[in-house]
Amino acid sequence: MLAERAHRAFLDRVFVGWDIALTEAGFCLVEGNSGPDVDLMQRPVRRGLMEGRFGALLAYHLQAVP
Fold it and tell me: How far is CA 60 from each of CA 32, 41, 51, rounded to the nearest angstrom?
């Protein structure tokens, strides 16, 4: 997956919001955001991201940061 390959270049980051466009030639990585708009991901499901698996994974990785 394109986002996974891109994230390997930034392993010091726990969370990156990748902007990926679909073009006639296929997927194209536009940019990575260190402060992504998580509110856009919460609106469709009508609950906070911290209530699910994302919250548990983020908490785990943040506790591991020295």
Answer: 22, 20, 14
